[in-house]
Amino acid sequence: MQNRWDDDEARAALGRWGSWGEALALRVYTSRLIGAESALVLHGGGNTSVKAPYRTLLGEEVEALYVKGSGWDLGSIEPQGLPAVELAHMRRVLRVPDLTDEQMVNEQRTHMFDASSPNPSIETLLHAFFPARFVDHSHADAILALTNAPDGERHLRAALGDDVVVVPYVKPGFDLAVLAAQALEDQPDARAMVLLQHGLFTWGDTAKAAYDDHIELVTRAEAYLASHGARPTAPADVAAVTEAQARAGRLAPLLRGALGGGFLLGHRVTPELLTWVDDPRLEAWVAAGPLTPDHVIRTKNRACLVRVPLDDEAAWPAAVKEAIDAYVADYHAYVDAQVARTGGSYTRLDPWPRVILVPGVGAFGVGAGPKDTRICLDITEHTLAVKEAGEALGGFSGLSDDHLFDVEYWSLEQAKLGKKGGKALGGRVALVTGGAGAIGVGVAKVLRAAGAAVVLTDRDEAGLQRAVEVLGKGADLLAVPADVTQAASLRLAFEAAARAFGGVDVVVVNAGIAHSRALVDLEEEAWRRVQEVNSTGAFLTVREAGRQLQRQGLGGHVVLVSSKNVLGPGAEFGAYSASKAAAHQLCKVAALEFAPHGIRVNMVAPDAVFAQDGVPSGLWAEIGPDRAKAKGLAPDELPEHYRGRNLLGTPITGEDVGRAVLFFASAQTPTTGATLPVDGGLAGAFPR
């Protein structure tokens, strides 16, 4: 394990956070060093603290414990992420004979110095007991490989020495703090503490001392594993990984459909990960559960193992359904048994897996959004690596179902249920063709704000990147180059969406081009080019959308960005008007055919959209001069002309089109086969 301490960086930390005091500035610095190493902590795991004076509003100095707050990640923590609590009171609380979790949290909250701070760590009392000024706690992979071995305590002492306190597993909270405090009192000269199936604590009078000890002990654990033959197996080759990625794009919609909707999936495969999911020991690794109780909140008590015949895709749907059904039944049985054991009353969590492992394909994370799926996948990679390393010590001994349930259904976690408001398209995926233009950007902006993960496609790769920059990069936005006139290109785009998010729910058929010329002067080549993109491209997109949505089995929406010209065509605009009318009629047919599958097909018919957030319309950039000429206008007069001709006297934006798409995509009315004008009111285009 690399020691990341750097004197220059430490001085820089004092310059950056020195106004908070030297102790807190260095506490933030070493917390970030720990958080920077995924082999120590993942996604909010671990916690740190420092004991230092707090000056009150009255000018009094009170000894405080600054401890990591809920919701903060060590890798990016700021001083505000270490709320201060009254140290003396926390130590007195440890002497109370018994305390519920709710009472403990209340004592912490009511003895904070700043009521606006986040809740202090659930392990605040344990941090308070340690006499040293700085305390570091991690869930280091190498330590967990030792603690979860069948004879974990023996291996720990052999690896780390006898001056380390070893504490049996107890659920985090008051009982653990009391037990750990007693263990340290029994071994006052100890330099560190290991909580079995949980993690490592080190401490020191300086930030550097506590951190140095932490890295040294983790390094010892790594060396011990290596000395016992812990060596990774040979990773899969690149060709196997590429094949696994291709399979994932076809398998993900089936998995997502079997989960009943409301979730996104994320796929991951690396040479190492593919080797692990193909390992004959995988079933035993899955049965052993998570590395540490903290993970059960993210990953549930077990991963779901799905085996599909790789050479027989026709058998995949049945294999997926069988595996997911079995997982759900097992989860219900697990909860039923624990409810009977405890006699308690709980809000039952959903039974769906959060991690799905598929030999020959890789791992899928399941969650409400891309961040959740990424967290599940990060934890999965570390879990499998630790379990493989643990084989050198005789295997991996996980926590019992009793312990896992006590954390998964912890009263503090139960209290959080139902408090988050959902967005209209939360847990949904939208694919937008023609994503590099003004309408594509406007539609993506609206759908993303409504909670959807968005996949933008366009054949203009530079334009796609510009659109991503305008919209703002994020895990919920994916740009995929694709040509709507090529069926294979479209299929690959849908498969990329499936690997990134699990599938699609909303397909916005938006790609289009135009050509302005009187019919007698219209070139055949120009006519065919417009039909190829606007009509054939719409057909190929709708066809692929229908195939993918039916394969997923969750219903869905197809929304065509049609045109005002379908009902109110313009002179010298024959190729465009005819192509849009063809696509419009095609989607009415799709509405008839897709309805039995729960798929709605609707159209929005905008008038001219010239730009959105600085992104110009490629269509109007190309045909604007000719359209202006046809209307006897200068090119720069076109936007005002189109604004002035509608009844409401308003310009039409890409976001206006996006809100119309959202109306259909959020299923606010039981509607299919309908057309919603977005034109400010044009009497010549009124339906008739």
SSE layout:
Layout: H1 7-17, H2 22-35, E1 47-55, E2 61-67, E3 84-86, H3 87-93, H4 101-110, H5 124-129, E4 134-138, H6 141-147, H7 152-160, E5 164-167, H8 174-186, E6 192-195, E7 199-204, H9 207-227, H10 238-258, E8 264-268, H11 271-277, H12 282-287, H13 296-299, E9 304-305, H14 316-342, E10 355-358, E11 362-367, H15 370-390, H16 401-408, H17 411-414, E12 429-432, H18 438-449, E13 453-458, H19 461-471, E14 477-481, H20 487-501, E15 506-509, H21 524-552, E16 556-561, H22 574-594, E17 599-606, E18 611-612, E19 615-616, H23 618-630, H24 638-645, H25 654-665, E20 675-678
Parallel strand pairs: 5-6, 9-10, 12-13, 12-15, 13-14, 15-16, 16-17, 17-20
Antiparallel strand pairs: 1-2, 1-4, 2-3, 4-7, 6-7, 8-11, 10-11, 18-19
Quick structural gist:
With 688 residues, the chain is α/β, with parallel strands linked by helices. 46% of the residues lie in helices and 14% in strands.
Which second-level CATH architecture of the largest domain applies?
A: 3-Layer(aba) Sandwich
Structural class: alpha/beta
Which percent bin holds the helix content?
40-55%
N-to-C span: 74 Å
CATH level-3 fold name of the largest domain: Rossmann fold
CATH class of the largest domain: Alpha Beta
Question: Order of strands side by side in the largest beta sheet?
Answer: 3-2-1-4-7-6-5
Radius of gyration, in angstroms, nearest whole number: 30 Å
Described by strand count, sense and barrel closure, the largest sheet is: 7 strands, mixed
- Total domain count: 3
**Strand composition percent:** 5-15%
Count of extended strands: 20
CATH homology group of the largest domain: NAD(P)-binding Rossmann-like Domain
Instruction: Show unreliable segments.
Output: none
Rough shape? elongated
The number of helical elements comes to: 25
Average of per-residue pLDDT values:
94
